[in-house]
């Protein structure tokens, strides 16, 4: 089962540049990246609603959701920023540079989150191997951007 989850993460990662390209194309036909991002979120919302209804999930209990910390509600904002930024940057800096920078930012933030064990992540201290992984990734960003 672990290999399935690893493959799923890999395939989802492959969707990042594709999503940015699709959304930047939509931006050309919808008055810009913000409208394209909004449309993307509406389509995504409809798709998730369809899944919820098809799977017959129970609706969340609002009283339970009130106990979530304030920052637990910021994921939608972060997703909107990510989608809008991708739609805006894709035609300006290209897929490889954009994704390299996105992944570098994601990896650095991930190391910090793992080190702190924050927001439901299991705690994994930063060590030499993890630090070298970041350095190699940053070198990759430089090499990709040199072209």
From TrEMBL:
InterPro entries, per database record: YdcZ
Origin: domain of life: Bacteria
GO CC aspect terms: plasma membrane
Keywords per UniProt: Membrane, Signal, Transmembrane, Transmembrane helix
Signal sequence range: 1-20
Segments traversing the membrane: 36-57, 69-89, 95-116, 128-146
Keyword check for Membrane: yes
Coiled-coil ranges (or none): none
Matches recorded under Pfam families: DMT_YdcZ
PANTHER family: INNER MEMBRANE PROTEIN YDCZ (PTHR34821)
Protein name: Transporter family-2 protein
């Amino acid at each position: 089962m672990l290999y399935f989850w690893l493959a799923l993460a890999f395939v989802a990662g492959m969707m990042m540049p594709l999503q940015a390209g699709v959304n930047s194309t939509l931006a050309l036909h919808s008055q810009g990246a913000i409208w394209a991002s909004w449309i993307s979120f509406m389509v995504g919302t409809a798709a998730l609603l369809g899944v919820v209804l098809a799977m017959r999930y129970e609706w969340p209990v609002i009283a339970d959701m009130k106990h979530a910390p304030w920052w637990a509600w910021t994921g939608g904002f972060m997703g909107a920023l990510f989608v809008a930024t991708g739609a805006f940057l894709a035609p300006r800096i290209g897929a490889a540079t954009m994704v390299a920078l996105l992944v570098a930012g994601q990896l650095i933030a991930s190391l910090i989150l793992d080190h702190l064990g924050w927001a439901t992540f299991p705690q994994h201290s930063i060590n030499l191997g993890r630090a070298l992984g970041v350095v190699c990734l940053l070198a990759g960003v430089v090499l990709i951007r040199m072209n």
